[in-house]
Amino acid sequence: MGGLTVKRLVFVLLFTPVLISTLSCGTDPNELLRLSDREIISFTSLVRDLEDVQLIFIGELHAEPAHHDFQLAVIRALNEAGTPVAVGLEMFRHEDQAELDRWVRGELSETDFRDIYSANWTLPWPLYRDIFVYARQEGLPLVGLNVPSNITKQVSRAGFSSLTPEQIGELPQATCDIDETYMNFVKRAYGAHAHSTTGEFVHFCEAQMVWDASMAAYALSYLAKHPDRTMVVLAGSGHAWRRGIPEQVRRRSMVSYRIILPSIPGKTDPSAATLDDADYVWLPASGD
Protein backbone atom coordinates (compact mmCIF):
# COMPACT_ATOMS: atom_id res chain seq x y z
CA MET A 1 0.00 0.00 0.00
CA GLY A 2 2.98 2.32 0.54
CA GLY A 3 3.42 2.77 -3.20
CA LEU A 4 -0.23 3.50 -3.87
CA THR A 5 -0.73 6.34 -6.36
CA VAL A 6 -3.97 8.16 -5.65
CA LYS A 7 -5.16 11.39 -7.21
CA ARG A 8 -7.02 12.35 -4.09
CA LEU A 9 -8.40 10.88 -0.89
CA VAL A 10 -10.35 12.94 1.58
CA PHE A 11 -11.25 11.65 5.02
CA VAL A 12 -13.82 13.78 6.70
CA LEU A 13 -14.76 12.87 10.27
CA LEU A 14 -16.44 15.87 11.88
CA PHE A 15 -16.93 17.22 15.38
CA THR A 16 -18.15 20.69 16.44
CA PRO A 17 -21.13 21.86 18.51
CA VAL A 18 -21.96 24.92 16.43
CA LEU A 19 -25.31 24.98 14.63
CA ILE A 20 -24.78 26.34 11.12
CA SER A 21 -27.89 27.72 9.50
CA THR A 22 -26.21 28.83 6.26
CA LEU A 23 -24.88 25.45 5.12
CA SER A 24 -27.81 24.37 3.01
CA CYS A 25 -27.83 27.56 0.96
CA GLY A 26 -24.20 27.23 -0.07
CA THR A 27 -22.70 30.23 1.78
CA ASP A 28 -19.54 30.09 3.87
CA PRO A 29 -20.67 28.47 7.15
CA ASN A 30 -17.78 29.52 9.39
CA GLU A 31 -14.15 30.48 9.46
CA LEU A 32 -11.26 28.19 10.18
CA LEU A 33 -7.85 28.62 11.77
CA ARG A 34 -5.15 27.24 9.47
CA LEU A 35 -2.49 25.99 11.88
CA SER A 36 0.42 26.01 9.43
CA ASP A 37 0.47 29.82 9.43
CA ARG A 38 -2.25 30.53 12.02
CA GLU A 39 -4.24 32.49 9.45
CA ILE A 40 -8.04 32.74 9.69
CA ILE A 41 -9.56 31.50 6.44
CA SER A 42 -13.09 31.17 5.07
CA PHE A 43 -14.90 27.95 4.20
CA THR A 44 -14.41 28.80 0.52
CA SER A 45 -10.67 29.18 1.09
CA LEU A 46 -10.64 25.84 2.88
CA VAL A 47 -12.17 24.10 -0.13
CA ARG A 48 -9.54 25.69 -2.36
CA ASP A 49 -6.80 24.56 0.05
CA LEU A 50 -8.08 21.00 -0.26
CA GLU A 51 -8.16 20.77 -4.04
CA ASP A 52 -4.94 18.75 -4.32
CA VAL A 53 -5.14 16.91 -0.99
CA GLN A 54 -5.65 13.16 -0.88
CA LEU A 55 -7.07 12.81 2.64
CA ILE A 56 -8.89 15.16 4.97
CA PHE A 57 -9.95 14.15 8.46
CA ILE A 58 -12.59 16.11 10.39
CA GLY A 59 -13.94 14.75 13.67
CA GLU A 60 -17.62 14.43 14.54
CA LEU A 61 -19.61 14.21 17.71
CA HIS A 62 -22.13 11.70 16.43
CA ALA A 63 -25.27 13.19 17.99
CA GLU A 64 -24.70 16.81 16.90
CA PRO A 65 -26.82 17.79 13.86
CA ALA A 66 -24.54 20.74 13.06
CA HIS A 67 -21.63 18.39 12.49
CA HIS A 68 -23.53 16.53 9.82
CA ASP A 69 -24.66 19.78 8.21
CA PHE A 70 -21.00 20.70 7.92
CA GLN A 71 -20.12 17.28 6.54
CA LEU A 72 -22.71 17.73 3.82
CA ALA A 73 -21.44 21.24 3.09
CA VAL A 74 -17.93 19.88 2.49
CA ILE A 75 -19.19 17.01 0.34
CA ARG A 76 -21.39 19.35 -1.70
CA ALA A 77 -18.64 21.95 -2.15
CA LEU A 78 -16.15 19.38 -3.41
CA ASN A 79 -18.72 17.77 -5.67
CA GLU A 80 -19.85 21.09 -7.16
CA ALA A 81 -16.20 22.03 -7.73
CA GLY A 82 -15.91 19.00 -9.99
CA THR A 83 -14.11 16.69 -7.58
CA PRO A 84 -15.23 13.04 -8.01
CA VAL A 85 -16.28 12.32 -4.43
CA ALA A 86 -16.81 9.07 -2.54
CA VAL A 87 -18.04 9.06 1.06
CA GLY A 88 -16.46 6.69 3.59
CA LEU A 89 -18.58 5.76 6.60
CA GLU A 90 -17.80 4.66 10.12
CA MET A 91 -21.58 4.20 10.34
CA PHE A 92 -21.56 1.12 8.06
CA ARG A 93 -19.67 -2.12 8.29
CA HIS A 94 -17.37 -3.02 5.41
CA GLU A 95 -19.27 -6.28 5.01
CA ASP A 96 -22.49 -4.39 4.13
CA GLN A 97 -21.00 -2.66 1.10
CA ALA A 98 -23.48 -4.28 -1.28
CA GLU A 99 -26.39 -2.59 0.52
CA LEU A 100 -24.75 0.82 0.21
CA ASP A 101 -24.24 0.20 -3.50
CA ARG A 102 -27.91 -0.73 -3.91
CA TRP A 103 -29.00 2.48 -2.18
CA VAL A 104 -26.86 4.68 -4.42
CA ARG A 105 -28.17 2.88 -7.51
CA GLY A 106 -31.76 3.60 -6.43
CA GLU A 107 -32.64 -0.05 -5.82
CA LEU A 108 -33.76 0.43 -2.20
CA SER A 109 -36.58 2.51 -0.80
CA GLU A 110 -35.74 4.92 2.00
CA THR A 111 -37.67 2.73 4.43
CA ASP A 112 -35.66 -0.36 3.50
CA PHE A 113 -32.35 1.49 3.62
CA ARG A 114 -33.23 3.06 6.95
CA ASP A 115 -33.69 -0.45 8.39
CA ILE A 116 -30.24 -1.43 7.09
CA TYR A 117 -28.78 1.75 8.56
CA SER A 118 -30.36 0.97 11.94
CA ALA A 119 -28.80 -2.49 11.89
CA ASN A 120 -25.40 -0.83 11.49
CA TRP A 121 -25.68 2.31 13.62
CA THR A 122 -27.71 3.19 16.71
CA LEU A 123 -28.02 6.96 16.35
CA PRO A 124 -31.22 8.47 14.88
CA TRP A 125 -31.57 8.30 11.10
CA PRO A 126 -32.37 12.04 10.68
CA LEU A 127 -28.84 12.94 11.75
CA TYR A 128 -27.40 11.41 8.58
CA ARG A 129 -30.39 11.35 6.22
CA ASP A 130 -29.49 14.43 4.19
CA ILE A 131 -26.01 13.08 3.51
CA PHE A 132 -27.32 9.72 2.32
CA VAL A 133 -30.00 11.33 0.16
CA TYR A 134 -27.53 13.75 -1.41
CA ALA A 135 -25.11 10.91 -2.20
CA ARG A 136 -27.93 8.99 -3.89
CA GLN A 137 -29.11 12.02 -5.87
CA GLU A 138 -25.60 12.79 -7.09
CA GLY A 139 -24.49 9.18 -7.58
CA LEU A 140 -21.66 9.52 -5.06
CA PRO A 141 -20.31 6.14 -3.89
CA LEU A 142 -20.80 5.31 -0.22
CA VAL A 143 -18.11 3.10 1.31
CA GLY A 144 -18.49 1.12 4.55
CA LEU A 145 -15.35 1.26 6.69
CA ASN A 146 -16.32 -0.19 10.06
CA VAL A 147 -15.71 -3.65 11.49
CA PRO A 148 -18.35 -5.80 13.22
CA SER A 149 -18.87 -4.78 16.84
CA ASN A 150 -18.38 -8.37 18.01
CA ILE A 151 -14.80 -8.16 16.69
CA THR A 152 -13.89 -5.05 18.65
CA LYS A 153 -15.64 -6.39 21.76
CA GLN A 154 -13.68 -9.65 21.59
CA VAL A 155 -10.39 -7.83 21.05
CA SER A 156 -11.18 -5.54 23.98
CA ARG A 157 -11.75 -8.59 26.21
CA ALA A 158 -9.08 -11.00 25.01
CA GLY A 159 -6.78 -9.20 22.57
CA PHE A 160 -6.22 -9.34 18.83
CA SER A 161 -4.49 -12.73 19.16
CA SER A 162 -7.79 -14.28 20.26
CA LEU A 163 -9.32 -13.80 16.80
CA THR A 164 -9.52 -16.79 14.50
CA PRO A 165 -8.16 -16.62 10.93
CA GLU A 166 -11.77 -16.48 9.73
CA GLN A 167 -12.49 -13.50 12.02
CA ILE A 168 -9.33 -11.69 10.99
CA GLY A 169 -10.04 -12.01 7.27
CA GLU A 170 -8.83 -8.72 5.72
CA LEU A 171 -8.28 -6.97 9.07
CA PRO A 172 -4.81 -5.49 9.51
CA GLN A 173 -2.73 -6.48 12.51
CA ALA A 174 -3.68 -4.37 15.53
CA THR A 175 -1.11 -3.67 18.24
CA CYS A 176 -0.97 -1.05 20.99
CA ASP A 177 1.91 0.70 19.22
CA ILE A 178 1.09 4.36 19.89
CA ASP A 179 2.85 7.42 21.26
CA GLU A 180 2.53 8.74 24.80
CA THR A 181 -0.08 11.37 23.94
CA TYR A 182 -2.41 8.85 22.31
CA MET A 183 -1.71 6.37 25.11
CA ASN A 184 -2.92 8.94 27.62
CA PHE A 185 -6.05 9.53 25.53
CA VAL A 186 -6.81 5.80 25.50
CA LYS A 187 -6.17 5.60 29.23
CA ARG A 188 -8.73 8.33 29.85
CA ALA A 189 -11.24 6.42 27.74
CA TYR A 190 -10.46 3.20 29.60
CA GLY A 191 -10.65 4.68 33.09
CA ALA A 192 -8.83 6.82 35.59
CA HIS A 193 -6.86 3.90 37.02
CA ALA A 194 -5.68 2.35 33.76
CA HIS A 195 -2.14 1.02 33.64
CA SER A 196 -0.55 0.49 30.25
CA THR A 197 1.15 -2.72 31.37
CA THR A 198 -1.99 -4.64 32.32
CA GLY A 199 -3.36 -7.20 29.90
CA GLU A 200 -6.86 -5.75 30.13
CA PHE A 201 -5.71 -2.28 29.13
CA VAL A 202 -3.53 -3.55 26.28
CA HIS A 203 -6.54 -5.44 24.89
CA PHE A 204 -8.66 -2.28 25.14
CA CYS A 205 -5.95 -0.36 23.31
CA GLU A 206 -5.77 -3.04 20.60
CA ALA A 207 -9.52 -2.71 20.08
CA GLN A 208 -9.07 1.03 19.44
CA MET A 209 -6.33 0.19 16.95
CA VAL A 210 -8.59 -2.29 15.16
CA TRP A 211 -10.94 0.62 14.45
CA ASP A 212 -8.24 3.03 13.34
CA ALA A 213 -6.22 0.57 11.28
CA SER A 214 -9.20 -1.07 9.60
CA MET A 215 -10.83 2.20 8.55
CA ALA A 216 -7.50 3.34 7.13
CA ALA A 217 -6.90 0.06 5.30
CA TYR A 218 -10.42 -0.18 3.84
CA ALA A 219 -10.30 3.39 2.60
CA LEU A 220 -6.91 2.92 0.98
CA SER A 221 -8.10 -0.33 -0.58
CA TYR A 222 -11.06 1.48 -2.15
CA LEU A 223 -8.84 4.24 -3.51
CA ALA A 224 -6.42 1.70 -4.96
CA LYS A 225 -9.32 0.46 -7.10
CA HIS A 226 -10.71 3.96 -7.77
CA PRO A 227 -7.65 6.25 -7.92
CA ASP A 228 -9.56 9.18 -9.43
CA ARG A 229 -11.97 9.42 -6.49
CA THR A 230 -11.74 11.74 -3.52
CA MET A 231 -13.06 10.06 -0.39
CA VAL A 232 -14.82 11.96 2.37
CA VAL A 233 -14.90 9.76 5.45
CA LEU A 234 -17.37 10.44 8.25
CA ALA A 235 -16.38 9.11 11.67
CA GLY A 236 -16.02 9.98 15.32
CA SER A 237 -13.64 12.56 16.75
CA GLY A 238 -11.60 9.98 18.65
CA HIS A 239 -10.49 8.51 15.33
CA ALA A 240 -9.97 11.79 13.50
CA TRP A 241 -7.01 13.50 15.09
CA ARG A 242 -3.51 13.03 13.76
CA ARG A 243 -2.68 10.09 16.03
CA GLY A 244 -5.75 8.06 15.03
CA ILE A 245 -6.65 7.03 11.49
CA PRO A 246 -4.22 9.55 9.95
CA GLU A 247 -1.30 7.83 11.65
CA GLN A 248 -2.48 4.43 10.42
CA VAL A 249 -2.72 5.84 6.89
CA ARG A 250 0.77 7.33 7.20
CA ARG A 251 2.14 3.90 8.10
CA ARG A 252 0.57 2.32 5.03
CA SER A 253 0.70 4.93 2.27
CA MET A 254 2.33 8.06 0.93
CA VAL A 255 -0.98 9.82 0.28
CA SER A 256 -1.21 13.41 1.50
CA TYR A 257 -3.83 14.33 4.07
CA ARG A 258 -5.26 17.18 6.15
CA ILE A 259 -7.11 17.17 9.45
CA ILE A 260 -9.93 19.49 10.53
CA LEU A 261 -11.06 19.69 14.15
CA PRO A 262 -13.66 22.10 15.51
CA SER A 263 -13.17 24.50 18.35
CA ILE A 264 -14.85 23.01 21.41
CA PRO A 265 -14.39 24.55 24.86
CA GLY A 266 -12.38 22.22 27.05
CA LYS A 267 -11.44 19.95 24.15
CA THR A 268 -10.02 21.83 21.17
CA ASP A 269 -8.63 25.24 22.06
CA PRO A 270 -7.59 27.23 18.98
CA SER A 271 -4.91 29.07 20.95
CA ALA A 272 -3.31 25.80 22.04
CA ALA A 273 -3.88 23.57 19.00
CA THR A 274 -0.82 22.79 16.88
CA LEU A 275 0.06 20.78 13.80
CA ASP A 276 0.54 17.81 16.14
CA ASP A 277 -3.25 17.78 16.47
CA ALA A 278 -4.69 18.97 13.15
CA ASP A 279 -4.21 21.22 10.13
CA TYR A 280 -7.32 23.34 10.67
CA VAL A 281 -9.51 24.28 13.62
CA TRP A 282 -13.10 25.00 12.65
CA LEU A 283 -14.21 28.18 14.47
CA PRO A 284 -17.77 28.89 15.62
CA ALA A 285 -19.61 31.64 13.77
CA SER A 286 -19.63 34.90 15.71
CA GLY A 287 -22.62 35.08 18.01
CA ASP A 288 -23.48 31.34 17.89
Give the CA-based shape.
globular
Quaternary organization = single chain
The CATH class of one domain turns out to be Alpha Beta
Average predicted confidence as pLDDT: 83
N to C succession of SSEs: EEHEHEHHHEHHHHEHHEE
N-to-C CA distance = 43 Å
Q: Determine the fraction of residues in helical runs and give it as a percent range.
A: 40-55%
* Strands ordered across the widest β-sheet: 2-1-8-7-3
Report on the structure:
- This protein is of the alpha/beta class and 288 residues long.
- It has a domain at 23-148 and 227-282: Rossmann fold (3-Layer(aba) Sandwich), CATH 3.40.50.11550.
- It is built from eleven helices and eight strands.
- Strands 2-1-8-7-3 form a five-stranded mixed sheet. Strands 5-4-6 form a three-stranded parallel sheet, sandwiched between helices.
- It is globular, with a radius of gyration of 18 Å.
- The termini are far apart.
